[in-house]
Fold these 3 entries.
Entry 1:
Amino acid sequence: MKAFSAEGRETGAEQLWICEHPGVFTLGLAGRPEHVFAPGKIPVVPTNRGGQVTYHGPGQVVAYPLIDLKARGIFVKEYVHKLEEATIRTLSHFGVTGHRVAGAPGIYVRLDDPFSHAMLPQRPQQRAPGSPVLQPDFTGLGKIAALGIKVASHRAYHGLALNVAMDLEPFSRINPCGYAGLRTVDLSTIGVSATWEEAARELSAQLSRLLAM
């Protein structure tokens, strides 16, 4: 990704990679080794994306848009919003309501009713000037998609991971995204039967549409 993005500065080339990784823990630039407390035989790989630690493995759709933000006139926060929106729309395709949580990138679902359209009290909201920044509140929620990007010379790479039908046990060996006790779920956990191919196809379509790729 790094090499392609560097070459693309000259050619304007962009791509969307959709893949599935073998089991691996990845540490972002803010990653702290103590958040990986029982890796076992699963490799731990430092990366240059943002964020903390997460797990990638079979049954998870990983999407890497390699795009030129400057050429598209997209700011970084807007780009992150588009990645999250593509994930929310993908979940909606399968009848699931995805949510944003203030101060915590990624997409979450209600554990008691993943299909409820009711807004979360933890959703991002405008703060009054001078008011304190609230810590993320994951009460009653499970994380179903993680985000982590890198931007260099206006080119974005890395991306997002959507949990479809995984062995979720490795997430219990880490503090996902640096949060102790944060529960991780996938579509199969919440009762949605979808293949990796179906989820990958829908996520690809949503990303392509929102990013006009």
Entry 2:
Amino acid sequence: MNKVQLIGRLTKDPQQRTTQNGTAVATFTLAVDRRFARKDGEQGSTDFIPIVAWRKLAEIVCTHLHKGNRAAIAGRMQVRTYLADDGSMRYMTEVIADEVEFLSPKGEDTTSGGLPFDAPEVADEDVPF
């Protein structure tokens, strides 16, 4: 069974593009806090999970979700491989969204401190998986 459920905040606005055959696809990164306390008493860390939405869901996500919004994602894990320019094999792990639930209240101001932490801007090439 391949089922993933995540709740987190968007690190930046979703990016939408269209494939060659006209299919809409949106990508964004979800910051998901780990629920544990470290021995030194500090809070757990945060995982930055790449999310992909297709077709109508991609359009809806790009219209209604923005940086800092809280969202619940249900979908499946996918691992892709590709050949890099240097000839090495690269792996990309991402979640393909089947369902997205908007958890931030409508009209919530996310431009002025909407994130509960200082989330860095994460470029796709910086994601370690």
Entry 3:
Amino acid sequence: MEAEIKDVNLPNGQLLTPFQRKLLLKNLTEDLPGLYRQRIQIMLLADEGKSQTNICRTLGCCPATARHWIHIARSGMAHQWQTAPIGRPKAVNEEYLERLKTLVNDSPRNYGYAFQRWTANWLSKHLAKEFGFQLSDCHIKRLLKTMGLSTKSKPVITPETPSQISTNSQISIGNLSSESLLNESERLPIHFLKIKTNS
């Protein structure tokens, strides 16, 4: 939705300097992506005294977007309207994912840490040193999950350990053959010592 912006030189605009207003109006005449146009329109309408609710209704934008660009205009930074890229930057690329995979399959001790197992928090901190940006623990966990990985240690199942643990609380012994039992000649005698006590 296109808002009608008054092309007047307001010496006493509410948020913008005359230079900023002129610059924004000039940029509005150029062929810009819709979201860039919206940013400019939000700041110009706010400068005319329009409320956040009115701006959202006029432009069809969400309150958070309107609030952000009104704040930018209010803080005197309106001339930098194009410095923030549209949308979130694509921080996580294939290189990042490969490095995450390598780290989680390797011991943290190989990287100078004292602990034996990675946590999402430490993976995030370590990768921040290497790539220059930090992801939240939740985001790291999501990435690991999509790759079928986890920071939790897997239970070690050995041939001697049954794969299914009985749910009742009784102890059961199974798989004992007569060959595995000690015969009388293999038993070791136990001798108890008597300790004298002075009474």
